[in-house]
DNA sequence: CCAGAATGTGCACACGTGTTCATATAGATG
DNA sequence: CATCTATATGAACACGTGTGCACATTCTGG
């Protein structure tokens, strides 16, 4: 042990070459498919590499025009459950596709600064999964030549690929289900207007109402607490027979308040959410909701990543995902289903 | 537009130099603090860089002995809520510390393979946040000269830094609180024995019982469903007055079953969890639990990262985190407290 | 005015890898 | 045997950057 700092030096191809008694080129070839190299020699090299813990340095390889496989995922501060679940699935999905997802998150200022700095890596793409901000981040990426994939919010910009769920159609189907079940006096708990999903889901609700108007309405923050508060506020007004919520977190908050208030679900008031987060399926809640399909989203993103790699100059496209109405007990009225 | 593939070429320092009419060295210096460079010239360079969207290539810089700031986070399949919350906080925390967290996750085989391949990057550390597996991954990392930080499970191996919560002491305090509140017939829902936290927490429970024995006991999977099933199974046995659960997810599952069964919490049966996941604080649950401090964990990890950077050859150390008993209504007995 | 320090700048090297190129050897084909 | 092809291998280059080095210029103090 000559120098303490030397101890941690990473093994290099030259080290392996020396140990195996071959040229450095041979070592490189040993790790590359489809090259001419004596089989016995290759084995000897791989063995030597294993012995001293060598692996080709991805940084140096990337410098050589090799695919970096690095991908950044920009999540906001992930306030609600759905964002967390989506981020986790996305990361593991990319992983399975051989990509290396770098997570960028935290509070607005921190995340935005990090998003800017991470561009010093030759990213294969920047994936935006933050409902609210992101348009300026996208602009910076495009300028740097880094492809952008926006999920959950459509960004109108050259070269930006978009993935979005059919918010309006989904909500329309959900509310239609409530109406078919006998609900007539519907109150709506909406999301913050800074999220593009909020007005779309509200529009879907109005679609299903036909000419009818909402009994009452207010705007929440997509959090459970705000759903709780909203339910309390709306209950004071003209007695509704259904709460339609722009996402599951708020629906679960509303459910909590209604139970505390002694309201029977769904007989007195039916409840509808949006997203189908894991918790909504738990027996304790059993919330009827509209599934925002995470697996489809992940599949679409890896697909877009692939297409972009094939043709870096291709036009940006928009992929729309279908929702699925998940009927559970929070909407199972005892009234005759028409 | 001469060639379509040329279009996406990343801007290089030489491009900036040409545009700004300076040497390439000057460009490099413009982006480095503490170098001699005419102020007016630096500004001109930065402006030119901004114009063509240039940023120093982290790959090439890393090749130069520069810190990579890359960190891998190995999470298992994140079956339970606490893992998801911890992973999210860890990622954003590292972010704020100027690190780039690469998430590695998914099913066992996929994650393990990915963990091996990610070592081709010059990682500053591999952070293990998977309760069960990980020892073999750690061995590979150490061999490659990549420092390992294990969180939630202590790995006895040279050069591995460990962070762990005081499971035993925490659980002891929690159960003592129940006993002080009048509980005498305690049933225990444990975690899978493959997680090192499971036996520790159980030991803490037994500590608090003094000579007493558990009324009943079974082993769950740290999931809500298994907690639900366990509660049903245990309720058939000699009537307990408290359920102690090895984590919050199982406690919430148990709570769900008990409510369905018409059992009053906490008057008939008190409930104790472990972790203090976000949901436990929601009014719908209001679960008494032992906080597994995520913020402290993140702080400890960044601290260890720093120390390791200062002295790469230092010995591995063990940091133990203190829990905090969070008293909520699931343990608030009407019986006189003492 | 002079010596020395402080500041500014370009050249050239090193980092670790993949790959082209030239060359050498062995095997097949006529 | 002569040619041609398939296989094997090392030398050399390129990737984009940070920085040591040598040299030029300006400033400071006597």
State the gist of this model.
The structure is a homodimer of 338-residue chains. With 338 residues, chain A is an alpha/beta fold. Chain A is built from twelve helices and twelve strands.
Structure description:
The structure is a homodimer of 338-residue chains. By secondary structure, chain A is of the alpha/beta class. The first copy, chain A, has 3 domains: 6-63, lambda repressor-like DNA-binding domains (434 Repressor (Amino-terminal Domain)), CATH 1.10.260.40; 70-166 and 294-322, Rossmann fold, CATH 3.40.50; 167-292 and 325-331, 3-Layer(aba) Sandwich (Rossmann fold). In chain A, 42% of the residues lie in helices and 16% in strands. Chain A is built from 12 helices and 12 strands. In chain A, the strands form 2 sheets. The first copy, chain A, has a 6-stranded parallel beta sheet with strand order 2-1-3-4-5-11. In chain A, strand 1 (70-75), helix 5 and strand 2 (100-104) form a beta-alpha-beta unit. In chain A, helix 1 (13-20) crosses helix 2 (24-30). The longest helix of chain A has 17 residues, at 294-310. Chain A is elongated and about 85 Å long. Residues 1-7 of chain A have low confidence and may be disordered. Chains A and B meet through helix 4, helix 5, strand 2, helix 6 and helix 11 of A and helix 4, helix 5, strand 2, helix 6 and helix 11 of B. The structure holds a DNA duplex (30 and 30 nucleotides). Chains A, B: This is LacI family transcriptional regulator.
Fill in the CATH topology of the largest domain in chain A.
Rossmann fold
Strand elements of chain A, count: 12
CATH class of the largest domain in chain A, named Alpha Beta
Number of helices of chain A: 12
Order of helices and strands of chain A: HHHHEHEHEHEEHEHEHEHEEHEE
Low-confidence stretches of chain A: 1-7
- Greatest interface by residues involved: A-B, 60 and 60 residues
Please state the average pLDDT score of chain A.
91
Work out the radius of gyration of chain A.
26 Å
Provide the CATH architecture of the largest domain in chain A. Answer: 3-Layer(aba) Sandwich
End-to-end span of chain A in angstroms? 83 Å
CATH superfamily of the largest domain in chain A: Response regulator
Pfam families (chains A, B): LacI, Peripla_BP_3
Keywords (chains A, B): DNA-binding, Transcription, Transcription regulation
Protein name (chains A, B): LacI family transcriptional regulator
InterPro entries (chains A, B): HTH_LacI (IPR000843), LacI/GalR-like_sensor (IPR046335), Lambda_DNA-bd_dom_sf (IPR010982), Peripla_BP_I (IPR028082)
